[in-house]
Amino acid sequence: MLGVFRYRDKLGHRLVLILRGFPCSWGRCTFCPFALEQSTSTARVIGDNRRIIERAIEEIRREPVGRVAVFNGGSFHELPYDTVERLRPLARGRVFEVEERSEFVTLDSLEALVDYYRPRRLIVRVGFETAFEDIREGLLRKGMPDSEMHRLSRLRLEARSRGLPVEIWTYLLFGMEGIPEETVVESLRAFKRLFDGVIAVRYVKYLPSHPDPAPVSEALAKTLEEEADLVDWGGEQWEIAGRRGSAPGASGAARSSTGSGERRGST
Q1: pTM
Q2: Taking each helix axis from N to C terminus, what angle separates 181-194 and 146-161, rounded to the nearest 10 degrees?
Q3: How far apart are CA 93 and CA 74, in angstroms?
Q4: What is the pLDDT of residues 63-100, one digit of tens each?
Q5: Could you report the per-residue pLDDT of 178-199, keeping only the tens digit for each?
Q6: Domain with 132 in it
Q7: Which of 21, 27, 105, 115 suits a disulfide with 72, CB 3.0-4.6 Å?
Q8: Can you give the three-state secondary structure of 22-48, one letter per residue?
Q9: CATH code assigned at 39
Q10: 12-18 and 3-9 as β-strands: parallel, antiparallel, unpaired?
Q11: How many Å apart are CA 34 and CA 72, to the nearest integer?
């Protein structure tokens, strides 16, 4: 699912780039399929990303947008410099979104990104997935304890106190066995207090070794649509290296309430 995609949804009219990345430095999350799209070949990563970025620049010339998001199935700081440099015209003066694991997010790294890209606003997405550390570390193996969650919550305030146009958003995972719906709702409300935005992502199983999906109730679907900044229900665009994941059918309300299908990374 590498490429350039346009969306018009709750976040507005935006362009999303799915780049090829190197293998994630963590690489231990139990549910992430994006290793299927990653490569250890520098030439392949650079070449594929050049073509995607060139296409994105053409798209923006044809129909301008004010918001650009970049995903690479890992952390933005793990992309090669050639890719990082070529993204500058897409980021300058726009809302620019990237994904990171929490350990890459520091005051220095935020200042450097703002200085280098000159975005109107920088949004950094981090995949905490749940506010419950036992689920995050026991089931998901994220390697991001509660201390990191609270560090980033404080960091976003410190960044803004220094005049940086920075927001930190988080992902909220739902629809997986082992993540009870009541914890999803509690996590959503905790994340809204801690961060600037919450993107709820329905779990999709791609590999036999991954956890099993779980049905999503009408009540949870309604709460997520009303309270999250965006709900990603997956759908046809959730195709990773030619594989479409399996998930049980969502409720009628869940299926009809959105069609975003936004792919996200594994951070």
Answers
A1: 0.92
A2: 30
A3: 25
A4: 999 999 999 999 999 999 999 999 999 999 999 999 99
A5: 999 999 999 999 999 999 999 9
A6: 3-257
A7: 21
A8: CCCCCCCCCCCCHHHCCCCCHHHHHHH
A9: 3.20.20.70
A10: antiparallel
A11: 8
